[in-house]
Every structure is written in structure tokens, then in C-alpha cells.
Amino acid sequence: MTDATTQPRSVWTTRAGRSGIVLLGLIALAAVTLPSILPDYRAMAFGHLLPPSGAHLFGTDYHGRDLLSRVARGAQISLMISLGAVLVAATIGTAVGLLAGYLGGWVDSVLMRTVDAALAIPRLFVLLLVLAALDRIPLPVLIVMLGATGWFGTSRLVRAEVLRLRHEGFVSAAGGGGAAVWGIIFRHLIPTAAGPLSGAPTRGGADVLLLEAGLSYLGLGVQPPTPSWGGMILDGLPFRSEAPWFCLFPGLAIVITVLAVSLIGDGLRQTLTPDRA
Amino acid sequence: MRRLLTRVGQALLTFAIAVTLAFLLMRLTPGSPLPALDEQNRFTPAQEERLRKLYRLDQPIQVQYWEFLQAAFDGNLGPSIRYTGQTVTGLIAARLPATLLLGFTVLLLNFTFGTWLGVWQAVREGSRLDHGLSLLSISLYAIPSFWLGLTLAWLFGLEWRLLPVGGIHDVVMSPDADLGTRTVDLLRHLILPAVTLSAVSIAATMRHQRSAMIEALRLDCIRTARSKGLSERQVIFHHAWRNALGPMVTLFGLWLPILVTGTVFVESVFNWPGLGLLAAEAIGNRDYPLIMGTTLLSAALVVLGGLIADLLHGMLDPRVQAL
Lengths: 277, 323
What we know:
The structure holds 2 protein chains of 2 kinds. Chain A is mainly alpha-helical. Chain A has 11 helices and no strands. In chain A, helix 3 packs antiparallel against helix 6.
């Protein structure tokens, strides 16, 4: 079995985790600081489709807007959406998993069969079905939808973790000592289960980033004039030959951000199961 | 045997709930299939009423659900609303070959290269090569499939003019071209979508194979095989790899659903006439019977894939049956 001394303690001690955190930190820093240095992302003040240059590092788009400003503003939007969606998913997933695992019986059966069934319906279909039916897609709605379709796996993990912990001494002791169910859940189960489950939100975050980009590319995610990476790729599509940078930079932004999040996820996995690093 | 029956019963129940959930979701979100038929906005209210009657959209939702179930049990998924005169099963059957061709090409690519790379990583665990390949697979996973598809189509199709950018065959090909020409043409159209889909999905295969192989290499029988003086090649491929196959079978089951859902973006970028594209169009048109048909199929694939993975896993590893 694993030697406790060789097992990395925190994600920072793993190479993947460290690179991911640094990379994501740089992206977040750029997203926060760049918009105040660069020209306004809405200003149609420059030449159409200018190639990358000293004045416009990423070039300009069809409407003569600075692409770097728009990619940076897109980073704010994308990071906000995935953070929000992951929080929504983690909250619902934890709540359902705790209920199912702790209460057991028919509640558990009903919840878990529903989760199984929900996992069998493609997430993309559900999102397309709902988002295509809406006249407008405000950001909060998009966030809630991405979160509401992303918690099924988490609830299963939480349930399994609760089932494992239920039989541990300290939980039965708390119950035997007369502690209330919710007290046990919040004081004992959640803090103990949080560590092993920390990998799920990072995987979820990477998926949400990719999904949001895909939906925005289909015109069903972030709505113009709000800039989004997927939306910029859609805008740049007709100009692929004359202005390849238009599609290229937003795409690279997605790749690097998803990579950063996945690296953190990889690092977390290594802290938990070093064998499968 | 009992385990098998329980598992199959569970799968059927999951499928039934999934179908119900999909039906409810479809009908409870706003929208109607009629506008897609009425592009010029010329329907009179009387005509619209007639169409609603024809497709039984005027019935209460529980009646529609019941009628859908009864027909579905007879293998009849109803007529498509958007594609007048065509049945849902007919439309799905027409799109199936393209999807299967793309899907199995990707499967072949993933399992050939992904397995090989994963084994290689496991054998050199912790080396530079291992880290490099891990980084490669995680980077490939981070690429949005539609963007990779667009970029490859732009480079190979528009800039270098090496490969076609879309469709499944050359539209200007003479109708009496021989089989060889047709096959070459088909393969040329297949390359870009298959490579795109394979690139973004190969990470799972590599990772699975790597960790399964690392675990297998630590088994006692490997030490025995080495101490018997077998060559490293024999140890790796005859002893370790065989033990690492179980998890790969699981992965095959999990891969099945990609046939429909994983292909939506790639099929729409390359205009590949498969099921993913059909499903996306059906959703856009609110073509209720066609949405139910494609969703039914993907849910069936998910449930079936899980079942196959479970059962094969049990066959390969007798310890599972004891559970």
C-alpha cells in the first residue's frame, strides 16, 4: 500500500497542481487587470480585421474592436460562469447525496434511480432543449442551467462517501450521543467528506468551460454584445481565411483555461490516490 | 444469474425513468414544432388547428405520453413533424451508417493509439516520457472539439487544399464512379472529423490504460514472471496487459454513448450527416417525435453501455460475481 510519507499532502506539492494553479492565477490576473489598461472592449474605434501588431496584440475584429480586450473580458465572463455553475452543481449534488446517503431507504432509492436516469439523458440535449426555447438567455439563467445539469455525478460521490462514513465510529458516536441529524451532517459528515470529494468540482469546472464555449458558439450561450470566447469564434468564422487570428486567439484562450483547471484536478487526484497519478 | 437479472431489471427501470424525464422536459419547456413548418408565416389559425390535431398536440400531456409509449412498444416512434412524410425510425436508420462509420473509426484510433501510449506510459512510469504524454493527453482534452474541427478544416481544407472541408462525399462526383474512387473519396471526407473527435477523446483511453497497467505491473504474478526469466516484452504483453484489460472493457461500455452525443459539434462543423447533427436539428425545430427518438436512442446506449461494461467486467474478473 501507499507509504504515507510519500503521499503529497496538498495540491501545491504536485507538479500538475502547481502548474495549474499558477496558470489559472495568471489568467485570472489578466482577466482582472487587462481591461483597465487596454482600449474598451466595446469601442469600435479601430480598423476592421487588423492583423496582430504592437498596438493590437491579438489584432482587431470585424467591427474594429481590439480582440485582446474582448478575450480578456471574455475571460471574466467565462470564469464567472464556470465558478457559478460549479457552485450550483456542488450545492445541489451535496444536498441530494447527503439526503440519499444519510436517510437511506426509499428516499435513497428514488433519488438514486432518478440520478441514474438523468445521467442517461445527454446533458447537451437538455441544455439545447431549454436554452433554445428561451427568447433571451440572461447570464444567471445560463449559470443555473449549467449547474442544474451538472450535479448528478457529484451526488453519487457524496452519497457513497456518506455511506462509508456512516459506519465510522465518530458518526455513530455523535448519533448515539443524541446529536440531531442536521448537526451530524454539517458538523461531521460534510467536513470529513470534503477532502476526498474536492476533485469533482475541478472536473466539473473544465466541462462547464467547454460546454459554455460550445453553447455560445451555437448562439445559445452568452448573448452578444457580451463577449464570450465561443461567440467570438462564431463571429470570426466567415473571416477564417483573411483573418485567422479572429478565431485563433479565443480558441487558444479556451484551451489554456481548461488546461489550467484540468491540471489542478490532476494534482488533486494525485494527493488522494498517488498510485493512479 | 440472479445478479444478471437484477442488473438487467435495474437498467430497464433506469431507461424507463429516463424516457419519462425526457418527455416531461421536452413538453414543459416552451415552444412549438409548428413555426419550423411555417417558415413564411402563412398558416391560418384553422390550418394550424388542423396540424395540431394531426400531430395530437391538442391532447393533454398525459394522453400524448401514453400514446407515445404504446406506439414505441410496437417499434413505432411516429412521424417526424419537420420532415413531412418521413418516420422517425426511418430518419434515424438513414443517419445511422454515417454515425457508425465515424464512431467506429474513432474507436479504432482511440483504442489503438490510446492503449499503446497508455501501456508505454505505465512501463516508463515517472519518466519524462510519461509526464510528457500525460501533459499531451490533458491538453488534447482541453481543446473544444468544434474549434479544433474548424481549425483543421481551415488549415487542411481551405489553406492547403488537401482534404474536403465537409460532407460525406464529393457532390460533383460522377454518378458512375467505380467503387475504388468512391471509397477513397469517403475516406478523404472521414479523415478530418475522425481525427478531431479522436484527438479530443483519446485522453480517457490513455489515462485508463495507464493506471490499469500500472496496477497490473505491481501484481505478484509479474514478479513471478520476471523471476522466471521471461523477456520484458513477454512480461508486459502476455502477463501484465492481460490483467489490465478489465478496465478497458469498462471504458468501451462508457464509450458507446459518444456515438450520438459526442458527435454533435464535430458533425455540425463538418456537416457530417450523422445522428448528432440530426438530434441537434430536431431540437432546434422542436420536432417532438424526432427529439424523443434521438433521446431514446442515446439513453438506451448509455444504459446498455453501462450494462455491457458491468457484465463483461464480471466475466473477466470472477471476484466481481461474488459481490
